[in-house]
Write a structure and sequence with these properties.
By secondary structure, the protein is α/β, with parallel strands linked by helices. The protein has a single domain, classed as Aminopeptidase (3-Layer(aba) Sandwich), CATH 3.40.630.10. Helices cover 36% and strands 19% of the residues. An eight-stranded mixed β-sheet has the order 1-2-4-3-5-10-8-9, sandwiched between helices. A hairpin with a 2-residue loop joins β1 and β2. The chain is globular and about 55 Å long. The N and C termini lie far apart (44 Å).
Length: 334
């Protein structure tokens, strides 16, 4: 399609899609400031986590003996090093016991709905999974470190999930579904859930970013931004997170809150929290719509952009603090 045809089609569809794609604030477009010592340490820590998972452990799949246990051990020890006492949540899949790893910062108000950050640590068999999803786990661990001493009003939960990839064809078999179900069973409510799903692959080249139709008519064609993806039930959360992220981030950002009939918006652990009635979104570099290495041997630590990852994590730590605020939150409490 030439540029004229694209423009005409966009004009025809814009009234229908504006509610899904319109986001507050402006995506960062300037030159980011140079890193200081703290940012350099964070970048090094993110790279270290990715290499520990994707290089030292490698494929993290139940058919690779000991690989899931090794990942659980690494994540648990990393939480302990920060000062948490991690909890293992067991669930059964095809007669196998799998484990989520959870760490929490208790809120001052134990009745307040929680904020949940989650990332799956497993991979498919073909890949070491640096972007998918060692990058998400690395971000999870460093967000926990950045927020550890924040004394939040509401509990902030950090959880690494098993079985997002090899779920037997049913989302209900994912570790995130077991976690959401467990929270519901003990009476916990969730104010906001953010699934950290592939945060490390960026490509500023023209044409590097793809989308399913018709979203290709509304978003940038360079893969140099981070995306926030939710359903219409989570639209207020998506817009709040995008606005707060854009207020402090030194990296581009885009958002969408669309009906679930667009299947790609549900492709991660945030889906599990939707099933329990809670607002949730996915934070992502857009997976196969940008990264050609998805589910291949090319998904290695060397393929990732750790400076951009660092900027994403820093801004997300600010978003977490804003979500915790009981004033001006911009969307309803559950």
């Amino acid at each position: 399609m030439n540029s004229i045809g694209r423009s005409l089609l966009r004009g025809l569809l814009q009234p229908f899609f504006r509610p899904y794609v319109s986001m507050p604030g402006a995506s960062f477009a300037g030159r980011p400031t140079a890193f200081g010592e703290d940012e350099k340490k964070l970048q090094s820590a993110l790279s270290g986590h990715v290499r520990a998972l994707a290089q030292d452990i490698g494929v993290r799949h139940d058919t690779v003996d000991g690989s899931l246990a090794a990942a659980v051990g690494y994540i648990s020890q990393s939480f302990r090093a920060i000062g948490f006492v991690p909890r293992l949540e067991a669930f059964t899949f095809r007669a196998m016991t799998m484990h989520n790893v959870e760490a929490i910062i208790p809120g001052r108000d134990p009745r307040a709905p929680w904020i949940v950050f989650g990332a799956h640590y497993d991979t498919v068999k073909q890949t070491r999974g640096a972007d998918d999803n060692a990058s998400g786990v690395a971000a999870l661990l460093e967000l926990a470190r950045l927020l550890k001493d924040s004394r939040p009003e509401r509990t902030i939960c950090f959880v690494a999930y098993a079985n997002e990839e090899h779920n037997g064809g049913a989302f209900e078999n994912m570790g995130s579904f077991a976690h959401a179900r467990g929270l519901r069973a003990v009476g916990v409510k969730v104010k906001a859930m953010l699934a950290l799903e592939m945060l490390g692959y960026f490509d500023p080249a023209e044409g590097s970013q793809k989308y399913p139709f018709p979203f290709n008519l509304f978003y940038p064609t360079r893969g140099d931004f981070i995306g926030f993806v939710g359903n219409t039930h989570s639209a207020s959360l998506v817009r709040f997170v995008v606005r707060q992220f854009r207020s402090c981030a030194q990296i581009g950002s885009e958002g969408v809150a669309a009906p679930e009939r667009f299947a790609d918006i549900a492709r991660s652990d945030h889906w599990s929290y939707w099933q329990h009635g809670w607002p949730a979104l996915m934070v992502t570099d857009t997976s196969n719509f940008r990264n050609p290495n998805l589910h291949t041997s090319g998904d290695t630590p060397e393929s990732l952009d750790y400076q951009s990852m660092t900027r994403v994590v820093l801004a997300l730590s600010r978003v977490a603090r804003d979500l915790d605020s009981t004033q001006g939150a911009g969307f309803d409490f559950v």
